[in-house]
Amino acid sequence: MYPNILFFVVDSFRADRFFGNNKTSYTPNLDLLLKKGTYFEQAISSADGTFLTLSSLFNGLFPFVTNVRSNEVVLRKDNFLEIIKNNGYHIYGKIPDSILLSTLKNYFENKNSTFQVKPPLKKERFTDKLCLKILDFMDSQNIVEPWFYYLHIYDLHFPRIVPNDFVDPKFGNDDYDKILSAIDFWFGKLVEKIDLTNTILVITADHGTHVPFDGKSTAHFEPEFKGTLNISKKIMPKSSHKIGAKMIVNLRNQIRNSRLKKVNEGLTPYQIRSRLPHTTLSIYDESIKIPLLFIGKNIPQNKIIPNQISTVDIFPTIMELIHSKTLHTQIHGRSLIPLMQEEPFDEQPIFLHTVPHEQITKNDKVGLRTSKFKYFRHSQDSTKEIHLFDLENDPFENNNVAQNNPSIVKEMEGILEELTKNVTVESMDDMDDKRLKLIQEELRLLGYKKT
User: Fold this and answer.
1) pLDDT in tens, 94-116
2) Distance (Å, rounded) from C-alpha 150 to C-alpha 103?
3) pTM (2 d.p.)
């Protein structure tokens, strides 16, 4: 009989808030589970946004294959949900009610598989009634073994709301950690319902996020000019409207930049980045380094693994743990069982890509990460926006050393080109205009402005 599988994804969960000195949350349940399983402290996601990371996760492939501009989760015919289903599993799930994730619902047997996250309706939280609904389902006769349950919660995603019972400073120094403390409390209730002797439990995230190091965001430093453009229309000829509008935008940007410069004086690049809005594109480690914990039968306990691994490795590991009869072959991911058993395991570079805006901008980046270096540049021009960071000596990525290390830049670019050869990295999926508009409107409601 196959073991059950609970796959728990906490959207926007940073690795340094699960394990390490930066954590101030109170998480007795996660701490206990950490001792019962194997934790990968250098797990890397290939992107800073949900639909790209989940496409990689469920296909075991880097985003340049699954399509970096797809605007939704892409599931190939031989994806891992399909393989798990073919192995006799009953697949259930609870995910945000999002068009971007809608392809996952095709595999879920439970009817009520989504929860509300989009304004203007109230956001449903795991730390409120959502967990109670999941507990009721776990207690019902509707869940059939062996089961695979995919749970994707949204509590840490912006905007963050701290539950009333966790406002106390003892639960964390900021809203992020206080919410994490609440997640831990309710997750403890969920784990009580599970027989860990017959369940593989995976705890991870899709990507990280910006969290202000001092609790202060610079997102509000945007001067307000409401009404200014309307006034200019009344006093200027029609032909001057565009010129006037451009002058106003330039003035606004000058004021904003001046205020930002003043408020960021004396801060490191990492500290400045931490204050940026959650929609800022980023493949710095705070946005792509995530927790990954395996618990269950034949999984070593109280083990911390420092090696760099990728989220594309997660499902190949699960396949080996359940002794799957149908194995994925042409993928980038590899089973992590050798690392758990302290056997040889060669490191491989991890492909990185920002979640692109509607139009390609200088903020769209592509790159690679090894345990020693992070390299990225403009997604379509290898001569622009070049960044190189020495991760061993500069883990917070404060100093871009690309100019002083042209040979390393050349080597990393060569690896990137070889990895992506014969693939159009910026290709667009065929998508009808109606669906594209629905996705764009959803992104707008979630705070991702059109750029």
Assistant:
1) 999 988 899 999 999 999 999 99
2) 13
3) 0.89
